[in-house]
Amino acid sequence: MREIRIRENESGQRLDKFLAKYMGLAPKSFFYKMMRKKNITLNGKKAQGNEHLKSGDVVKLFLSDETIEKFTERQSVVKSGTLKKEKLDILYEDANVLILNKPAGMLSQKAKPSDLSLVEYLTAYMLDSGQITGEELKTFRPSICNRLDRNTSGIVAAGKTLTALQELSRMFRERTVRKYYLCLVQGTVTGERRIRGTLTKDEKTNRVTVRRGETVKGPLFSDNLEEEISAEGTAVEGSFIETEYRALRSAGGVTLLEVHLITGKTHQIRAHLASEGHPIIGDYKYGVRAVNDRFQKKYGLSFQLLHSYRLCFPEIDGALASLSGKEIKAPVPEMFRKICKDSGVM
Questions:
Q1: φ, ψ at 230 (rounded to 5°)
Q2: If DSSP codes are grouped into helix, strand and coil, which group holds residue 207?
Q3: For the segment 71-124, what is each residue's pLDDT rounded down to a tens digit?
Q4: 294 Cβ partners below 8 Å, 6+ apart?
Q5: What is the tens place of the pLDDT at every residue in 165-217?
Q6: pTM flag (> 0.85)
Q7: Taking the C-alpha atoms of 292, 296, 297 and 298 in order, what is their torsion angle to the nearest 10 degrees?
Q8: CA proximity to 283, closest of 161, 272, 17
Q9: Per-residue pLDDT at 178
């Protein structure tokens, strides 16, 4: 017999889904059969499988160790202490949420099985700090709720519990969290604009194409985002995208922009600004090679100067109430700051 006590980071999920993670090789019919025969119980009672687990619940498996092991997937788990050389830059942390400042060059999530990404470093941090155990990783893995390109730096939010992960992911999906970036672009830009377009991705080249749409000039960056975008349903191909930006300062043929990412598609800011004639400095995929080569030669710049620097949360209650109305900021990377200062825009 094996007894499993549900911890906070596992709560919120259905019992049958929890069992499917714990014994990932077992067919679903096996779990329902074992529950009918009371070989699997919840809090000492017969279970149906659709119960939502709470912290402190006890699941008992009246099964042999051989049966449990037979149905348990062998997963590669990051061992405690193995990734300490990659110290996380933590901007905010509570019992449910971790908000990190990702450096340029680090993957947000794995691209292939052998990769080490921010998710693996997050897992190692939680193991090292005793916030999760290797056993618990069978049924819940902490993860991130928003992704940044490998060579984009800045804020990434992660859920340390299932409830937080689900709620944060919902907020990003519904755009109730406002995301602001800083970027250094080619050319002189003035004023504020809201630009719209259609984005199409080529999966083979991992490159997107933007068809320009409506541009709105004038004071933007309103905190009121309740207006629905009627153009979203009219795109013929690809995904509708919308980006706001305002010029902070221009000098020497470059401009420092603050960008409000309204929709969040692959390479949106990079491709959208390039389609406006203002590619981001250091972006070889969408930028101008001769310009990027100049900055690479002078500074050793190997990434685009795009930084997710500010995250604004709405009023929230429930599990994420501690984030209600908060604004989280990530400091600008040293090289980014130096280039901006030398260019006269910071």
A1: -65, -25
A2: strand
A3: 886 554 455 454 445 689 999 999 999 999 999 999 998 888 788 899 999 999
A4: none
A5: 999 999 999 999 999 999 999 999 999 999 998 988 888 888 888 887 766 66
A6: no
A7: 100
A8: 272
A9: 95
Q: 297-327 burial by CB neighbour count: b if 16+ within 10 A, else e?
A: eeeebebbbbbbbbbbbeebeebbeebeeee
Which residues partner with 92 through β-bridges?
A: 99
Q: Is residue 151 within 8 Å of 104, Cβ to Cβ?
A: yes
Q: Are 50 and 199 in contact (CB under 8 A)?
A: no
Question: Which among 319, 288, 70, 271 is positioned nearest to 186, based on CA atoms?
Answer: 288
Could you identify the residue written with the tokens 């991992």?
Answer: 206
User: Following DSSP, what letter does each residue of 133-174 receive, concatenated?
Assistant: -TTGGGT---EESS---TT-EEEEEEESSHHHHHHHHHHHHT
Residue 270's CB is within 10 A of a number of other CB atoms, namely 24
Looking at 37-90, list the stretches that DSSP marks H as alpha helix, in order from N- to C-terminal side. Answer: 65-70
Mean pLDDT of the chain: 87
